[in-house]
């Protein structure tokens, strides 16, 4: 039987959304500003956007770029972070470069990348890649660095090569920390995706948003913000379910129900 506290935790996000929409509706009616439509007007615009074939193609193009940029970043960043965590030489080589790139907003790199590669999908995917890479590298590095040396000594004693120890010992032990970085990277992938599409305006959800802003279609602007927010919530929820399954062994097991009714 589900406890009242568990039901309250599940219902809390829904009530928070309802409360936010109510505040939005009241504020919009009070301000009476054309650039700030009511929540109802924005919600009514959502079916029009999702029902429009061109808009749907643009949104799917955004998701494709995001998936490619995120996937490549994860494939590159996890091995690099693990190597940095276990090798001082690798860490000493890459750390200065990462420290230079880290504080720079990735959107600020867009003009330079556009000069090199144009305004196509490669440019936007590269910006997403850069946004995702740093948190994944950092958390992979921290996870690898935290692995106990005695585990690696045991692996060496059993005849495992350095690569085998990295794959069979370091990677599983660092997985919870790695997935934390991937979750952060997923959020940044969505942010950099929209930002890059608003700067290099050819296609995508960011392009829809900016075009609507140019034409004064403010209900569409806010509707797109809702759609992008919903995309982020759904992606995060799916990723959290996957993460929970992959690292179930690392979760504390003491929160068992006290009632068997």
Automatic annotation (TrEMBL):
Compartment annotation: Cell membrane
Membrane topology: Multi-pass membrane protein
PROSITE patterns: ABC_TM1
SUPFAM superfamilies listed in its UniProt record: MetI-like
Ranges that cross the membrane: 12-31, 66-85, 97-119, 220-239
Similarity section: Belongs to the binding-protein-dependent transport system permease family.
Main location, first listed in the record: membrane
Sequence ranges assigned to domain ABC transmembrane type-1 in this UniProt record: 59-239
Cellular component terms (Gene Ontology): plasma membrane
GO BP term, example: transmembrane transport
Protein name: ABC transporter permease
PANTHER family: ABC TRANSPORTER PERMEASE PROTEIN MJ0413-RELATED (PTHR30151:SF0), ALKANE SULFONATE ABC TRANSPORTER-RELATED, MEMBRANE SUBUNIT (PTHR30151)
Keywords for the protein's UniProt record, in alphabetical order: Cell membrane, Membrane, Transmembrane, Transmembrane helix, Transport
Tagged with keyword Transcription regulation: no
């Amino acid at each position: 039987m589900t406890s009242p506290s568990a039901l309250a935790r599940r219902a809390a996000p829904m009530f928070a959304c309802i409360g936010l929409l109510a505040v939005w509706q009241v504020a919009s009616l009070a301000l009476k500003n054309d650039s700030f439509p009511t929540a109802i007007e924005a919600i009514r615009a959502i079916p029009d956007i999702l029902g429009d074939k061109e808009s749907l193609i643009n949104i799917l193009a955004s998701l494709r770029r995001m998936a490619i940029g995120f996937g490549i970043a994860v494939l590159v960043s996890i091995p690099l972070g693990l190597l940095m965590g276990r090798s001082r030489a690798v860490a000493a080589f890459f750390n200065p470069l990462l420290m230079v790139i880290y504080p720079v907003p990735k959107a600020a790199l867009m003009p330079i990348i556009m000069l090199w590669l144009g305004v196509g999908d490669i440019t936007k995917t590269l910006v997403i890649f850069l946004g995702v890479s740093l948190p994944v590298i950092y958390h992979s590095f921290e996870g690898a660095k935290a692995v106990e040396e005695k585990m690696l000594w045991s692996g060496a004693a059993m005849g495992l090569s350095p690569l085998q120890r990295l794959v069979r010992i370091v990677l599983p032990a660092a997985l919870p920390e790695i997935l934390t970085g991937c979750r952060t990277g997923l959020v940044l992938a969505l942010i950099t995706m929209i930002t890059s599409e608003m700067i290099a305006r050819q296609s995508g959800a960011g392009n829809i948003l900016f075009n609507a802003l140019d034409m004064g279609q403010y209900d569409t602007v806010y509707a797109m913000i809702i759609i992008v927010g919903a995309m982020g919530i759904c992606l995060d929820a799916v990723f959290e379910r996957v993460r929970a399954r992959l690292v179930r062994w690392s979760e504390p097991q003491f929160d068992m129900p006290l009632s068997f009714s």
